[in-house]
Amino acid sequence: MFISAPTPPPNEARQWVAEQFGAGARVRTVRRLTGGITSAMHSLSIETATGHLRHVVLRRWVDDDRIEGADRVMRESHILEQLADSDLPHPTCWPSIRREHGAAIRHF
After folding, report:
1. 5, 29, 40, 90 — which has fewest CB within 10 A?
2. Cα–Cα distance between 7 and 61 in angstroms, integer?
3. In what helix (H) or strand (E) does residue 79 lie, and over which residues does it extend?
4. CA-CA distance, 65 to 82, in Å (whole number)?
5. In CATH, what number does 11-107 get?
6. Is the pLDDT of residue 68 over 60?
């Protein structure tokens, strides 16, 4: 899911995010976040099948160098995994996502 410019997430990416919350989940809102030198970041509100609203950040790495971008994804997700048992506030990166896509979903 590497991109060449910070464009809105395509429908395929939105559907993929919704699927991470189970059958019947859907993306309600998408808002571009500023910043992110190497990635396009968007805030998404997801409504689950049970009506709960979840807020996540979708990060898609810019296609400046696919190899280096993939390395950044793996390095950052490894750091987040190391922080999982700490008292420091940090986002969550789902392990299955980092292996399958050049993107990460983070809870906030």
Report:
1. 5
2. 11
3. helix 66-83
4. 26
5. 3.30.200.20
6. yes
